[in-house]
């Protein structure tokens, strides 16, 4: 009786599995850690601080908020007579009032936490 011959694909799959299941042998020189530690500088380099630049930057955002608050106030006062006759204008005024309130709250909280 003859032995069945193995398919070349089966031999390839078996060799591939053996290669994948064999763990690699890791070898590091005995002085590896000492060489790595020797490359690290002993004193840290001085880095420029970005936080200092923030306090010296111009305050365009706060100025824009004050302008927006003024415009919202003028717009709310201008549409006040129309709110008595139409619910659409009343809704529009409530939206403007909500925006006004959010900007005022944001100014209050941002001033408290940003200038410490």
Topology:
Layout: H1 8-21, H2 32-39, H3 50-56, H4 60-78, H5 80-83, H6 87-114
Helix pairs in contact: 4-6
Keywords, separated by commas or semicolons:
116 residues; mainly alpha; 69% helix; elongated
Plain-language structure description:
The longest helix is centred in the last third of the chain and has 28 residues, at 87-114. Helix 4 packs antiparallel against helix 6. The protein has helices at residues 8-21, 32-39, 50-56, 60-78, 80-83, 87-114. The radius of gyration is 37 Å and the shape is elongated. By secondary structure, it is an all-alpha fold. It is built from 6 helices and no strands. Keywords: Membrane, Transmembrane, Transmembrane helix.
Largest β-sheet summary = none
Uncertain regions spanning at least 5 consecutive residues: none
Give the termini distance in whole angstroms.
Answer: 93 Å
In DSSP terms (H or I, runs of 4 or more residues), the helix count works out at: 6
The count of DSSP E runs of length 2 or more, i.e. the number of strands, is: 0
List the helices and strands in order. HHHHHH
**Average residue pLDDT:** 81
State Rg. Answer: 37 Å
Shape: elongated
What is the gist of this entry?
This protein has helices at residues 8-21, 32-39, 50-56, 60-78, 80-83, 87-114.
